[in-house]
Amino acid sequence: MTTPVLEARDVTMRFGGLTAVRSVDFTVNSGEIVGLIGPNGAGKTTFFNCLTGLYIPTEGTVAYQGKVLPPKPHLVTQAGIARTFQNIRLFANMTVLENVLVGRHTRTKEGLWSALLRGPGFRKAEKESEAKAMELLEFVGLAAKRDHLARNLPYGEQRKLEIARALASEPGLLLLDEPTAGMNPQETRATEELVFAIRDKGIAVLVIEHDMRFIFNLCDRVAVLVQGEKLVEGTSDVVQADERVVAAYLGEPFEGDPGEAEAAEVEAAEAAAEAQSADAESAEADSTTSTTKGETQ
Ligand SMILES: Nc1ncnc2c1ncn2[C@@H]1O[C@H](COP(=O)(O)OP(=O)(O)O)[C@@H](O)[C@H]1O
Ligand SMILES: [Mg+2]
User: Fold this and answer.
1) Residue 180, in any domain of the structure
2) How confident is the model at residue 8 (pLDDT cuts 50, 70, 90)?
3) Is residue 195 part of a domain?
4) Span from the CA of 15 to the centroid of ligand 2 (angstroms)
5) Ligand 1 center to residue 43 CA distance, Å?
6) Residue at 238 is within a domain
7) Could you give the CA distance from residue 173 to residue 32 in angstroms, rounded to a whole number?
8) For an engineered disulfide with 251, which of 31, 110, 119, 258 has Cβ 3.0 to 4.6 Å away?
9) Is 88 inside a domain boundary?
10) Dihedral pair phi/psi, residue 229, rounded to 5°
11) How many domains does one find in the chain?
């Protein structure tokens, strides 16, 4: 059964004269892993920012489980959407465990006074939080590094820690912005498994990624964003075979800008070479060959 978890309707985001996201309708259903792909600058991260309350869309609405979300990041997290960032955002000087505990704070009910007085209620909650955080560290494979400082982790592990921290808010939907950027092929494979395992916990996943193998292996559905607009949406097979997607990624090999630019370049080079050899000939005729020496390359 497919029930929508996330429904974005007609989302537009403008920055001054630039329309980074244009009238995008987008749905993620429960149990789904959905991919969002598109060339650099297509508006993918901006769209994530609109979904998570970091930006207030110029137009349109975002609803989570049928309720329109207030455009405030902490309220969006509280509602049940968690995310990771394209540029990792961890507390570098906190330990691995502490970073995950920070992610849990939206789900702990203990108030400020309880925390200050460190009464029995607080200590019990703290114990529970720690146990939950350790479970998540086990889940992503970082339990052994619980006391390491986040900044000392290798890059791939920092990305995993970000995922653990996002999961600590007990989301129903997880948004991942380029989770395998900077990873080697083994780490990328492991991340694939991790995302499947997250989905199997009942968390829907929306993932931005440039690694097409990763996306097409993983996703039930893929949407392609080009210049802020949703160009194509469908199953991996459908999207992979779509000529417009190939064109958007590789440029148009037979016509259009890249081809024309290339042809113009070749033409200019030929004209230059011709002019040069004509120069050389007339120079030779003038018997001043020394002036053209070395210019033939
Ligand atoms: N805060 C901002 N202010 C102005 N322009 C922005 C801002 N954020 C993104 N943009 C612009 O919006 C476009 C889409 O960027 P982005 O969403 O980062 O693309 P992607 O994640 O697909 O690479 C780019 O042209 C970018 O320069
Ligand atoms: Mg981006």
Assistant:
1) yes
2) very high
3) yes
4) 16
5) 6
6) yes
7) 10
8) 258
9) no
10) -115, 145
11) 2
